[in-house]
Predict the structure.
Amino acid sequence: MVVGGNPYRPDYIESLKTLADPRVIFTGAVYGDGYWTLQKGAGAFVSAFEIGGTHPALVEAMAAGNPVLYLNTIEGRETVGDAGLGFERQISDLAAKIRLIVSDPGRRDELAGRARLRAQRQYTWDAVTAQYESLFAELLGPRRAKAAARDC
């Protein structure tokens, strides 16, 4: 199943449809409850994001307990850590990683558990807020950070 689309290049999605096996379903954009139903029922999540920082869809997939395959970028490695498998920009490498996930249920379950745990530890509102507070305290220096905390 391919969820999402490309509003900037709809011709690209159409070309993928001509190449795909008839069993592949292209859903287009899915939001709300339908999105979460797909996330929670996924066997794996493949993230091919090349730009940006911590991508919300990747974190959501981890929180849903999906084993994740991600394009091996600095941002992807930082987001996923040891909770997923990175793949290079080569079809053969992605195919090999997909085969590994599909053929090894133990590995798939291990990665899913690590992904869920990492999302719970790193990407909750409390965890992210604590990281921001720490960064601001470092930037402000100890005396200004104490004063700022008193003023809140």
